[in-house]
Structure formats: C-alpha cells, structure tokens
Design brief:
This protein has helices at 16-30, 82-101, 117-128, 143-147, 156-171, 181-189, 216-222, 243-249, 269-279, 295-300, 313-316, 321-327, 341-349, 360-371, 375-392, 395-415, and strands at residues 2-6, 34-40, 58-62, 68-72, 108-111, 133-137, 174-177, 197-199, 229-234, 258-263, 284-287, 304-308, 332-335, 352-355. The chain is an alpha/beta fold. The strands form 2 sheets. The chain has an 8-stranded mixed sheet, with helices on both faces. It has a 6-stranded parallel sheet with strand order 11-10-9-12-13-14, with helices on both faces. The two termini are 17 Å apart.
Length: 416
C-alpha cells in the first residue's frame, strides 16, 4: 500500500505534531507500506530556517527508518502576522500540492497540513486523483483565528472559512479529532457524519522525559537557587500561548523566592522579553533556544509547570505541551477557560490548577497559594498527571489507532 503523509512540521522541529507525524511514518513503513512524507524545510517554532538547510522548490531525501521525505518551499513566518501566516500556508499548500499531484499511485493520504488553504488544495488533489484522505484536525478554524482576534465572529471571511472547513471534513474518508469537545462542533455545526469522526488525542513517547534527571541539574546552569520556587513555561512562545500574562503576573511576587523560567522561542519572544525587562526583570529568566538535549532538564527543574492560553483559544485547541508537562511528573497551572478540555483534564486527574486566561492578577494569587503547598502534595499531583499520560496519551496507546484507521480508510475506499 502507498501512503502519502502531508505535514508542514516534521523533525528536527520539536513540535508534538512533528513527532507524531514522524511516528506515523515509521509505523506505516514498519507495517510494510510504501510511505512518502511531504513537509516544509524546518523552521518552527521561531520561523527561521534551521542551520544546515537551504530552501529549494522541493528536495527529496531518504529517512533511515524506511520512508521518503519531500521538503517543499514555504514562506517563513517569524512574526506570525496574518499576512505572513497566510503566505506560509498558501505557499506550502501550492508546492506540496504540486508534489502530491505527481506522486505515483497512492492508496491513502494522511493530512495534518495547515488548515483552510493548504488543506483545501490537498483535498482537491485527492479528489482529482481519486485518493481517500484522512484529515487530522489539530486546531479548529476559523474559531482559532476568532479567539486570537485576527478575524471577527460572523464576518464574511469567518463564514467562508467555516463553510470550507465543513466541506473538506464531510468529503474526507475520515477525520481525526484530538478532543472530545470538537465532536459536537463537527457533528452539529459542520454536519459531518459520526461514522467519519474518530477521536484520537495526540501522544508522546513515554520515554521522552526522563525522571532520572534531578531538579538541580538545570537550575545550576541558570543560577537558580534550590530553595527558589521555580515556575517553568516550556514551548512555543506564540500569540495563542498568552505567555505575556504570566510575565505580568510575576510583578507582585517575591522576587527572592519565586522565579519564572521561559524556555523556547516563537513570534512573541521579543515582546515577552521587553515586558519582563520593564515589569519584572529580576525573577524572569529566558532560555532560547531550548535544545532537544535539554528537554528533560528544563521540565524537571520546575516546582510547577505553567500552561497559559490566550482568550478562548483553549476552547478550540488542546495544547500538546500538556502531554510533556504531565509526563515530567510536575503539577500544572493552566490559564484556560473553565469549560475547555484542558481544564477538564487537569480537574478530573487532580494534577494541577486552573484559572481564567488573560488575568495576571488571578494567576499571581494562585501562584502565591501554590507556594505554600508541601512538597509531598506537589509530588503526588505530578505523579497522578504522569500516570494519566501513561494510560491514555502515549504512542503505545494511540499510534496503532491512527495506523489502523489509515489502512481501513484505504480498504473501504477501494470497496466503494
């Protein structure tokens, strides 16, 4: 069976969707299928081309795990403006679509590409070539753009995007949703038959965060005292992440006792650094770039991990960093809407706390309260979170479900 995987982010990029796409490619190749991955030249999360790469229209390479990789040209988006994101989306959609159009006969396409523009181009090519397509929906559009205040609700562009998203979802052989909350939206608003909807959360390799790393290792590198209460944000510093709220929350906290470490890069890094230098320069530390070799060190250095979101973003996406956070056996403070799946997981697992987004005052109050928790209670909360991930959000649990669905989609399409 020939399988085409289209995903704009792919290793060496550190994003969860890049890792899961790589694992899907490996698993399908391991099952004996002929696998081709179509992706962009690596640049995320900072939107800057990785050292050692030069952009061409497209470039082919062979992965050591038995599948081909086509790297395609895409406009870079370091500032994540509407125009640059549109150009990135459209350029990758056009070039990747061209590559897909001239691939040998394909039995199924696994699409985890940029929503609306790149997704629609790929969908048209799948229809033109009579290939079933299985779409993985990581964020709901246009709702995600609305939550970021990039477009307004009920505007013409919002209604057009909504119609396109539903049209593509209904025409797909199957769609994968990463959240139960998205089911109602796609069933009722997008009118997608339940027979096409499959809820499969994102996952991580259970070995990706080592518990052998002590909290002192990374603290020593950054000069953070062992008795300081360390809050860590680790991941993409984007508009949707709302990291600026956490920086503002640090203003009124005891700078000798409480410290915030922000590890990562992204379009809002410069803005957060300027905020920190203005409001709270003593107890906010930045670490960028955050190297893969430091992955466990950074997460394990924390007393708590903080997961902010902006506006209603938590209602239209599930931050994948929650998985790595919980896997590190550290409790999580989330800034999220109370009805979001993120909030529901944290409350039901009892592995952290939830406060409203965009409220630095509430965030600061909660941090002060958490500082008084005994270490044993924090460790117990972290242990519960890790056990939840091991039971529900690892590659052992969810990767076979995606692989089985791709094989089933190809077989059922042939019968039809």
């Amino acid at each position: 069976m020939r399988i085409l995987i289209v995903c704009p982010v792919f290793p060496p990029e550190p994003l969860v969707s890049a890792r899961t796409s790589y694992q899907v490619a490996m698993e399908m190749a391991r099952r004996g299928h002929d696998v081709t991955v179509v992706t962009a030249f690596p640049n995320r999360p900072a939107g800057k081309l990785y050292p050692g790469y030069k952009r061409h229209l497209f470039q082919s390479e062979q992965d050591e795990n038995g599948f081909r990789v086509f790297r395609c040209f895409a406009v870079l988006s370091p500032r994540s403006s509407m125009l640059s994101r549109f150009m990135e989306n459209l350029s990758f959609g056009v070039v990747s679509g061209w590559v897909c159009l001239f691939q040998p006969h394909t039995d199924v396409i696994y699409s985890i590409t940029w929503p609306i523009f790149a997704t629609t181009i790929l969908y048209w090519i799948a229809r033109l070539r009579n290939i079933p397509i299985v779409g993985s929906i990581q964020d709901v559009y246009p709702e995600s753009l609305i939550s970021q205040k990039r477009i307004t609700p009920n505007s013409l562009i919002a209604r057009i995007f909504c119609w396109i998203d539903g049209w593509v979802a209904r025409g797909s052989q199957a769609i994968i949703l990463i959240s139960e909350r998205f089911v109602t939206l796609y069933r009722d608003q997008r009118r997608v038959p339940m027979s096409k909807i499959h809820v499969i959360p994102n996952w991580m390799d259970s070995r990706s965060v080592s518990l052998e790393i002590s909290r002192q290792v990374f603290r020593a590198k950054k000069g953070i005292a062992d008795d300081q209460f360390l809050i860590v944000y680790a991941g993409n510093i984007s508009v949707a992440a709302g990291v600026d709220t956490v920086v503002r929350a640090m203003v009124g906290l005891n700078q000798d006792k409480v410290c915030l470490l922000i590890a990562g890069s992204g379009s809002q890094l410069d803005r957060c650094q300027k905020l920190a230098s203005t409001f709270s320069p003593q107890n906010v530390i930045f670490h960028s770039p955050w190297l893969q070799s430091e992955y466990s060190e950074v997460l394990r250095s924390a007393d708590i991990l903080i997961l902010p979101t902006q506006g209603d973003q938590s209602l239209v996406s599930v931050p994948s960093k929650l998985i790595s956070y919980l896997l590190s056996a550290r409790p999580v403070l989330a800034l999220a809407c109370p009805d979001s799946e993120l909030a529901q997981v944290i409350r039901s697992v009892q592995c952290g706390w939830v406060v409203d987004p965009d409220r630095p005052d509430l965030c600061a109050e909660m941090i002060q309260e958490i500082c008084a928790y005994p270490c044993e209670q924090l460790e117990a909360m972290g242990a519960r979170g890790r056990q939840y991930v091991l039971s529900n959000l690892t590659d052992e649990v969810n990767l076979p479900r995606v692989a089985d669905l791709l094989e089933k989609a190809a077989q059922e399409y042939v019968r039809n």
